Automatic annotation (TrEMBL):
CDD domains: PIN_LabA. GO terms for molecular function: RNA nuclease activity. It comes from the Bacteria. PANTHER family: SLR0755 PROTEIN. It comes from Paracoccus solventivorans. This is Uncharacterized conserved protein, LabA/DUF88 family. Residues 7-165 form the NYN domain.
């Protein structure tokens, strides 16, 4: 599905990829991830999307964001919203679907292949729009978690589904222990 002369871009939904890898019991090594897709084609862009809590003095994701910035990733962030759910638990909300979609559609005329790291079914119309512009789309997520992290409609729309667990030996590393339980809510390293 990958051709060496393909103009390729990565669109990484940070929290979605983090949750999928965590459910499979490993962390993503972003240096290895970038190298793997540089081998698969001509990597034009690697985008990483995440919401950040502005209320916290230190964010556990900040070191990752800094590293990605200095290592060739285009970082797209927006403020996350913090709320308390009906059970009294602290929750974080920061959906990046619109930002990811806008970037993918703007870059489409310069791409042969888009790789979307997300299982979010809300991205199905974006994939369909990319395909109408002649861009092949691969989706990276997992069916092997309970429940599966990829929406069925997203997997069906994509030209190619890549099982994240199959990439474990290529882009994975053993998970780190979280510093504090609440930090895990937004942590994506």
């Amino acid at each position: 599905m990958f051709y060496k002369d393909d103009r390729l871009a990565l669109f990484i939904d940070g929290s979605n990829l983090h949750a999928a890898a965590k459910s499979l019991g490993f962390d993503i090594d972003y240096k290895l991830l970038r190298q793997e897709f540089e081998r698969r084609g001509k990597l034009t862009r690697a985008y990483y999307y995440t919401a950040l809590l502005e209320s916290e003095e230190y964010s556990p994701i900040r070191p990752l964001i800094d590293w990605l910035t200095y290592n060739g990733f285009a970082i797209v962030t927006k403020p996350a919203r913090e709320y308390t759910d009906s059970m009294g638990r602290r929750r974080i909300k920061g959906n990046m679907d619109v930002e990811l979609t806008v970037d993918a559609l703007q870059l489409a005329p310069h791409l042969d292949h888009a790789v979307v790291f997300s299982g979010d079914g809300d991205l199905r119309p974006m994939i369909e729009a990319l395909q109408r512009q002649g861009v092949r789309v691969s989706v990276v997520s997992t069916l092997r978690s309970q429940p599966p992290m990829i929406a069925d409609e997203l997997r069906r729309q994509a030209d190619n589904f890549i099982e994240l667990d199959a990439l474990r030996d290529i882009i994975g590393r053993p998970p780190r222990e979280p510093r504090e339980p609440e930090a895990d809510a937004l942590a994506e390293p």
